[in-house]
């Protein structure tokens, strides 16, 4: 405080008779310096349960927005599956399967199982 | 992963409350610190107001159009709350809490280093409006327009507060600046 008083006494008269230039604030260096000092000396306030208290008091999210989010996730999974199916060379796999004498039923079974696994994984990932 | 405010807000509107927790954590320190100044150091009141502001912002988030930054919008809500609280409760200021805060402040003040202490004292020389304008523009980095919308003052008035405060601070803190420039610090 002593240093402040010392500087203050030296300049008390100048505070009340500010020049136009000072009032207009034509010193960008000072602005940057002051801004830096103000930010540097600001303490960080620990969360200390503040966030948890806020979250406890929030109203529950509406069912409508939950349903909308779920619809969006299912839509994304279906779209992704469609793109994969579009790009997948079914005809070649089919021909190969015939040549290798793989039974049609086991092939369909494997296909369904892998699609289910991919969709479940996609849904779980999207929900997380 | 650190998402930006816009992404988090979209998630909140889609029903993801955890995204809002991220926003609260991001802004809690700054907002609580700002409100402490606005509440004359009454920390309990400042925290209550900050909490209420976050809750009010959450409820109003679906209507947030995004034409201002989230922080500006949040500060506007918080400042409105404090101002209307001050208007309503003006005669019932918790003097004990203010005195307690002041005594804590003076202990903190004694522990502060020279520059921080003098900066704090210089800020106390400003009027409340000047202090708020400087705080918002120079400490928080809001533009004059944003500060005007938060403080609900005309743009010219905010500019004038900032300029006068800056000039006062420039005079009061000149010696520190000279010391920094001349490398004595």
From TrEMBL, chain B:
Residues 117-169 form the RNA polymerase sigma factor 70 region 4 type domain. CDD domains: Sigma70_r4. PANTHER family: RNA POLYMERASE ECF-TYPE SIGMA FACTO, RNA POLYMERASE SIGMA FACTOR. Keywords: Sigma factor, Transcription, Transcription regulation. The keyword Transcription regulation applies. This is Sigma-70 family RNA polymerase sigma factor. Belongs to the sigma-70 factor family. ECF subfamily. Residues 23-90 form the RNA polymerase sigma-70 region domain. The keyword Transcription applies.
């Amino acid at each position: 405080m002593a240093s402040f008083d010392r500087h203050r006494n030296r300049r008390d008269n100048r505070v009340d008779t500010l020049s136009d230039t000072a009032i207009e604030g034509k010193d960008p260096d000072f602005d940057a310096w002051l801004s830096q000092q103000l930010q540097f000396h600001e303490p960080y306030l620990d969360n200390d349960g503040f966030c948890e208290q806020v979250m406890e008091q929030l109203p529950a999210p509406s069912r409508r927005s939950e349903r909308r989010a779920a619809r969006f996730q299912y839509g994304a999974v279906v779209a992704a599956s469609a793109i994969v199916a579009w790009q997948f060379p079914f005809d070649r796999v089919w021909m190969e399967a015939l040549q290798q004498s793989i039974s049609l039923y086991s092939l369909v079974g494997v296909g369904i199982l892998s699609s289910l696994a991919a969709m479940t994984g996609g849904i779980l990932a999207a929900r997380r | 992963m650190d998402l930006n405010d816009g992404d988090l807000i979209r998630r909140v509107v889609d029903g993801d409350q955890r995204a809002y927790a991220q926003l609260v954590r991001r802004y809690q320190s700054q907002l609580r610190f700002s409100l402490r100044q606005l509440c004359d150091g009454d920390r309990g009141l400042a925290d209550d107001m900050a909490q209420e502001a976050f809750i009010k912002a959450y409820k109003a988030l679906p209507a947030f159009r995004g034409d201002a930054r989230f922080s500006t919008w949040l500060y506007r809500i918080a400042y409105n709350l404090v101002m209307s609280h001050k208007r309503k409760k003006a005669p019932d200021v918790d003097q004990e809490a203010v005195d307690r805060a002041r005594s804590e402040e003076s202990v903190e003040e004694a522990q502060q280093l020279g520059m921080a202490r003098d900066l704090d004292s210089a800020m106390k020389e400003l009027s409340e409006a000047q202090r708020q304008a400087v705080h918002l523009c120079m400490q928080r980095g809001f533009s004059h327009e944003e500060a005007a919308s938060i403080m609900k003052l005309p743009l010219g008035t905010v500019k004038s507060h900032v300029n006068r405060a800056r000039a006062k601070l420039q005079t009061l803190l000149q010696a520190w600046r000279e010391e920094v420039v001349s490398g004595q610090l």
